[in-house]
Amino acid sequence: MTTAVEFREFTKRYGGVTAVSGLSFEVPVGRIVGLVGPNGAGKSTSLRGLLGLLRPTSGSATVFGQLYGQLDAPARRVGAHLDGVGFEPGITGRRHLEICATAAGVPRRRVDVVLEQVGLAGAARRRVGRYSTGMKQRLGLATALIGEPELLVLDEPANGLDPEGIRWLRTFLRSYSRDGGTVLLSSHQLAELAQTVDEVVVIKGRTVFAGSLDELTDGGAHDLEDRYFELVSTGGERVRDA
Ligand SMILES: Nc1ncnc2c1ncn2[C@@H]1O[C@H](COP(=O)(O)OP(=O)(O)OP(=O)(O)O)[C@@H](O)[C@H]1O
């Protein structure tokens, strides 16, 4: 299996509102792919559809060739952290992760591993309600990592991180991908994204561009930001051949 994620003509309508229309792109195994687009472009809708949290009106979004809901032991294959998903504020970070480990069917020792991985070991016994935004992002990533998944799906993982946190996240994702992991993340932080991803998918209700960062920036000759604005203002379409 060389494709971790495949969106095929994924369409989601809410009554008269078309959130996403005919979205098609693939995420190859081992790559870091950034999903970008203006507010309301359909990034969260797409990621939610991929994770089985909403049903597409038509088309499909699959992970490792299957619907998320059909995966055996999904937490061991896909780890996700979506923007706006809250934590129970009254419990500690460690307790939160213990609950997640139980739900995922993985040993409790994973809790210490992921706490170390995301740099939260020292704050594990503090209540989540007292965590800063950046610490909550780290806890979200720890939650995603609990099952040692092959694929990470992250909605705006850099939101609320300070510069040190952003650099840490970039280093972490690169090393995860070097070890064979695949990442699909959404972001509005284009300069940061350009330092992190291998491939870019630009959406604006539909796919506007899907391909390598190199192709989009002509091997780094252009800024990702400039190319992004050209694409979203003209709505031109460039999708890599499958
Ligand atoms: N439950 C819903 N009911 C009706 N419309 C919705 C619903 N969820 C999303 N939408 C609409 O679908 C469109 C896409 O929203 P979505 O949140 O997926 O965009 P986004 O790219 O994640 O935006 P942002 O960058 O602001 O997070 C928007 O027009 C939004 O208003």
TrEMBL record:
For molecular function, the Gene Ontology terms on record are: ATP binding; ATP hydrolysis activity
Q: Which SMART domains match?
A: AAA
Sorted alphabetically, the keyword list is: ATP-binding, Nucleotide-binding, Transport
Protein name per its UniProtKB record: ABC-2 type transport system ATP-binding protein
Q: Which domain of life is it from?
A: Bacteria
Q: Which residues form a coiled coil?
A: none
- Which family does the record assign? Belongs to the ABC transporter superfamily.
Q: Which residues form the ABC transporter domain?
A: 5-229
Concerning Pfam families, the annotation shows: ABC_tran
Tell whether Transport is among the UniProt keywords: yes
